Automatic annotation (TrEMBL):
<feature type="compositionally biased region" description="Low complexity">
    <location>
        <begin position="247"/>
        <end position="260"/>
    </location>
</feature>
<protein>
    <submittedName>
        <fullName>Uncharacterized protein</fullName>
    </submittedName>
</protein>
<feature type="compositionally biased region" description="Acidic residues">
    <location>
        <begin position="233"/>
        <end position="246"/>
    </location>
</feature>
<feature type="compositionally biased region" description="Basic and acidic residues">
    <location>
        <begin position="210"/>
        <end position="223"/>
    </location>
</feature>
<feature type="region of interest" description="Disordered">
    <location>
        <begin position="76"/>
        <end position="95"/>
    </location>
</feature>
<feature type="region of interest" description="Disordered">
    <location>
        <begin position="210"/>
        <end position="277"/>
    </location>
</feature>
Amino acid sequence: MGTPRAAYIPPLQFFAFLATLTVHPHFTTRTYDVEKQTAADDALRYLQQVAKLVGPRNSGLVRAFRFVEAKKPTASRNKRAVTRNTTDTAEEEQEYDADSIRSRYATEESLWSKADDFWSVVGWAFNCSVVHPHRWRRWKVWLELVLDVLAADLESHAEDDTIAASLFARYLASVGERGRNTKRRLMRAILADGTQSSLAEFHEVWRDETRGPRTHKTQDANRQHKRQKLDLDNGDFGDYGDESSAEDSPAASNPRSRSSTAKPSRRDSGNDENSDDENLFDIFTEFLRPLPLAIFSHFVCPARPYLDPDALSSMLQMLFRPLLVGSGAPVYDENIVTQEVFEECFAPFAAGGGGGVDNAKVSVMVESLLRLLWRNGGVVGRRSLREAVEKGVKVRREKVAWDGRRRTGFKALEEEEAGMVMEASAQRMMSVLDLLT
């Protein structure tokens, strides 16, 4: 890999400042200024290269991306760039001093000051993916950057057996006491879908963030009002730190304050905090089962697995239970799913409640289990396997055909989509069986 070389990197506050520029609306979706848009893109590329070449821990990115430290700046000790060897795993303490950068985008307009925590940003970003696509395009690249940092940092701490000290562990700790309600909030953030309740809980980070660019006339007036000289050596970013207007004034209401007034749902109002060993897949079942079929399919039968085999198997079993109630399927409570268990307890059954959507979900989960067994060498081609899979395909088709309920409008379209998903799933399972034989 070559000889390790020293890397010159700035203090932490500059990383946090640049991370804000990559997504702040004044540098992205609320300006026509090409110079500012270029600054946001350059900031993103710089952070990506630092994460790739120096690493999140060696560079200090993991400390710069901590919401708590960013909100509590302290006195400056060092404004000069520091030199670190890229192979040195010792984390040197650096003072976080946002005030050393003369820009409100490093202080009161900083992402790390505006957002409640990481999960509030995740929820808002995914809300944008549905209702504000112009903002989602920017939040998407920010999330990708942070997820790369989280993954690399987590892997590094796993090697040292210090996962509790990772940035991801810190993000989890930021939501408060661990328990069922906490896990529900994380799931609501991950599954934020732009609905009214989701937008109420995960709202915009910056005031009027979703508005379009200002007119050229307004921008020119702002520039003429006050243009400062850039002095990068002394941390003076000129008019990049003074784009004030009545609607964007720091004195304007901070959206963070609204989060404290959000009312919890009825199911979250009770104090049901449990110990750490409570079953996480109960939460998965609660949130994943009602999802629309297309999104549900991505979670339970992904093109690229995102869970290890044991975790995926456990999650599928939890999701099967409510759907197979009343179907005659035997209850299976063990952790390991073998081919025999697959043939006897899952493959040959339809959803207990009927309806195209539930049966399509059962079909997709049966397919996912079959593919899981195949990938891990736990299945062999034999007559009993084909008979179980073909029986399941047949009974699910019959269940939908003889449902007896007439549907119109959206429900009819939903059932039509479910039928197509179920048939496509059946064809894929037949292809797997053909390969096995």
